[in-house]
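Inverse folding, one chain.
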C-alpha cells in the first residue's frame, strides 16, 4: 500500500544516478506532489533523466550543500518540520545535516556517512557510526524527538543487513524444523554457534556490460562506474577496515601480521569486537569468495572470485549487534570491468595520489566522472547484464564445512528494471525507498535515530523484494570454493 506524502516537501541532496532512480520509482511507494520535489547538485550537468522536466525550474538548484549553505537552502525552499531530506551527497557534512534534521524535525535518510572532516580521524566507518550515535545522545539530553533520521540505508549498507538477518533466521528454522520467525539477538547468536559461523562476506559481483562490450577509450583522468564514481573512489582509497567478534572461534581467513596496522587498532578499540585495519587501501586488498551469478544460458551457477576488501558500514553495525560472537565480516567486491580498467589507469597515471588528493579531486571535478546509465543512449551503447549482491556465510571449525548464501540477482531483463537504469542502481534505490517508507509510516513517527538493523526485517524485505529480481537463500556446495582464505595485497594491479 502506498503512503500518501502529498503534504510533504522532498529535498534531494545530490542528483546523481541513485537520486534519478529513486525519483523514478518514488510513485511505486508513495503518492506525492511533483511540485514539492526539490533537487540540488553542485554540477549543473547532473540535471537530466526521467521526470526531471516535470520538476519546477526554480526547484532545480545548482549548489554545493555544506555547513555554510545548508541553512540558506532550507530557508529558500521553506522546508518545514515533517518534510523529507534524501541525502545522496559525497564528501559533504553528514554530521551537520543529521544535527539540523533532528533539531528542525526533518525526516532524513542517507546511504552512507559522508563527512569531509573524517579524513582527520583516518576514515574509520566504525568511528563514523560512533560519532553519529554521540550526536544523537547529546541531542536527546536537551531536546524532544520530532522526526526520524535513518543513516546508511541503500543496498549495502542497508538492505544487506536484512539479507544476513533473514539468512540466520532461515537457518534457525531449518535447524528447529519450524516455520516461526525469530529475529531476537539471542536466537541469532545461537544460530552462529549451532552452524559454527566464523565468517560472513558481503559478496558482490557487478556484471554490467556494454551491449557491444566495446573497449572504453577514456581520458587519463576519467573514471567510469555503474553507480557513484565518487563513492567508489572514496571507499576504495581508504585503508581496508573490517571487524570480528572477540569470542568467535570458528573458521576465518588468514591475515598476515605484516599487513595489519596495529597502532590504528589500538586507537579504535571496542570491548566486544575487534576492528582490524590494514596498511593498504581497499582497492589493492583482495580475498576469495563465492556467490551465484547468471551464466550465458540464463542459468544460475556458483562463481568463485577474487574481490576487493573495501570497508562498508554494514560490517560494523552487525559487529555491534552480535557482540563478542560476531563472525569475521568484510565486504568482498568484484567491481565492474569498465570501472576496474578506468580506475587502474587513473592510479597508474597518478601514483603519488593519496586519500586527501582523491577527496579534493572528487570535490572539484564533475566532468571527470561517468556513471553508466541508459538514459538517452542509442541501442548499441546500452548496458546489459546483472548484479549479484548478498551474504556468503562460511561455517566450520578449522576448515570450511558448509557455505550458505542469501541475496539478490537483478538483471536488465527483469521487467521491474526501468530501461533507463542499470540493475545496480535499481538495487540501491530499493534500499532507499524501503527505508524511507519505513520511517514515514505513521506508526513509526518520531523514533529518532535509526540504524538499518533497527528496522523490521519482514517489512523491509516485503517492500524491497519487488525491485530485487531473484531474491533467494541457498546452500553452496563446498566443492565450488577452493577454500583458499588468505588476504592478498596487489599493488599496481594493471
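Residues assigned per position:
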Amino acid at each position: 500500500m502506498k503512503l500518501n506524502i502529498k503534504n510533504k516537501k522532498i529535498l534531494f541532496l545530490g542528483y546523481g544516478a541513485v537520486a534519478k532512480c529513486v525519483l523514478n520509482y518514488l510513485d511505486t511507494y508513495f503518492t506525492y506532489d511533483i511540485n514539492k520535489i526539490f533537487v540540488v547538485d553542485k554540477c549543473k550537468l547532473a540535471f537530466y533523466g526521467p521526470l526531471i522536466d516535470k520538476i519546477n525550474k526554480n526547484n532545480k538548484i545548482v549548489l554545493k550543500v555544506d555547513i555554510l549553505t545548508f541553512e540558506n537552502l532550507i530557508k529558500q525552499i521553506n522546508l518545514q518540520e515533517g518534510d523529507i531530506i534524501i541525502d545522496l551527497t559525497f564528501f559533504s557534512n553528514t554530521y551537520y545535516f543529521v544535527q539540523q534534521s533532528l533539531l528542525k524535525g526533518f525526516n532524513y535518510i542517507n546511504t552512507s556517512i559522508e563527512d569531509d572532516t573524517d579524513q582527520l580521524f583516518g576514515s574509520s566507518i566504525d568511528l563514523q557510526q560512533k560519532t553519529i550515535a554521540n550526536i544523537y545522545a547529546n541531542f536527546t539530553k536537551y531536546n524532544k524527538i520530532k522526526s526520524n533520521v535513518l543513516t546508511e540505508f541503500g543496498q549495502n549498507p542497508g538492505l544487506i543487513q536484512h539479507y544476513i538477518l533473514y539468512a540466520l533466521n532461515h537457518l534457525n528454522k531449518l535447524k528447529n524444523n519450524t516455520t516461526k520467525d525469530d529475529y531476537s539477538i539471542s536466537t541469532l547468536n545461537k544460530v552462529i554457534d549451532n552452524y559454527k559461523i566464523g565468517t560472513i562476506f558481503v559478496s558482490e559481483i557487478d556484471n554490467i556490460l556494454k551491449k557491444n562490450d566495446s573497449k572504453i577509450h577514456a581520458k587519463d583522468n576519467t573514471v567510469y562506474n555503474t553507480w557513484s564514481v565518487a563513492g567508489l573512489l572514496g571507499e576504495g582509497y581508504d585503508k581496508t577496515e573490517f571487524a570480528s567478534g572477540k569470542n568467535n572461534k570458528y573458521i576465518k581467513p588468514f591475515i598476515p601480521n605484516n599487513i595489519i596496522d596495529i597502532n590504528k587498532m589500538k586507537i579504535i578499540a571496542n570491548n566486544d569486537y575487534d576492528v582490524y585495519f590494514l596498511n593498504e587501501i581497499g582497492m589493492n586488498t583482495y580475498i576469495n569468495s563465492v556467490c551465484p551469478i547468471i551464466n550465458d544460458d540464463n542459468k544460475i551457477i556458483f562463481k568463485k572470485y577474487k574481490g576487493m576488501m573495501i570497508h562498508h558500514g554494514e560490517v560494523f553495525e552487525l559487529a555491534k549487534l552480535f557482540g563478542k560472537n560476531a563472525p569475521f565480516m568484510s565486504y568482498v567486491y568484484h567491481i565492474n570491468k569498465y570501472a576496474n580498467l578506468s580506475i587502474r589507469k587513473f592510479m597508474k597515471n597518478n601514483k603519488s595520489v593519496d586519500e586527501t588528493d582523491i577527496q579534493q579531486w572528487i570535490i572539484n571535478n564533475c566532468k571527470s566522472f561517468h556513471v553508466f546509465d541508459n538514459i538517452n543512449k542509442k541501442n548499441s551503447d546500452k548496458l546489459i547484464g546483472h548484479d549479484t549482491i548478498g551474504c556468503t556465510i562460511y561455517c566450520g571449525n578449522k576448515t570450511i564445512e558448509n557455505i550458505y548464501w542469501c541475496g539478490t540477482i537483478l538483471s536488465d531483463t527483469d521487467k521491474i528494471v526501468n530501461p533507463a537504469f542499470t540493475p545496480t542502481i535499481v538495487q540501491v534505490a530499493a534500499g532507499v525507498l524501503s527505508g524511507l517508507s519505513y520511517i514515514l509510516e505513521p506508526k513509526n513517527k518520531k523514533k529518532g535515530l535509526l540504524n538499518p538493523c533497527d528496522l523490521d526485517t519482514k517489512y523491509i524485505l516485503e517492500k524491497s523484494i519487488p525491485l530485487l529480481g531473484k531474491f533467494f537463500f541457498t546452500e553452496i556446495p563446498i566443492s565450488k570454493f577452493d577454500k583458499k582464505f588468505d588476504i592478498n595485497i596487489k599493488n599496481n594491479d594493471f
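DSSP finds 13 helices and 21 strands in the chain. The mean pLDDT is 92.
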